[in-house]
Amino acid sequence: MIVSTEELCGVGKSIQIRRATKSFGAVAAMKDVTLDVAPGEFLTLLGPSGSGKTTTMMAIAGFTDLEFGEIVIDGARVDRLPPNLRNIGVVFQHLALFPHMSVADNVAFPLKMRGMPAHQVRARVQRALDLVELSSLGARLPAQLSGGQQQRVAFARAVVFDPPVLLLDEPLGALDRKLRESMQAELKSLQKRLGVTTLMVTHDQGEALAISDRIAVMNHGQIEQIGSPEDLYEDPATLFVADFVGASNHIVGTVRSVSGDICTIITSGGVECVGQVRQVRDTSVVTMVVRPERVLLGQEALDAENRHSGVIETVTYVGDTVRYSVRISASDVLLTNVQNARGRPRLSVGDAVTVGWNSEDSIVFVPVK
Ligand SMILES: Nc1ncnc2c1ncn2[C@@H]1O[C@H](COP(=O)(O)OP(=O)(O)O)[C@@H](O)[C@H]1O
Ligand SMILES: [Mg+2]
Question: Ligand 1: which atom is nearest the Cα of residue 201?
Answer without folding.
Answer: 21
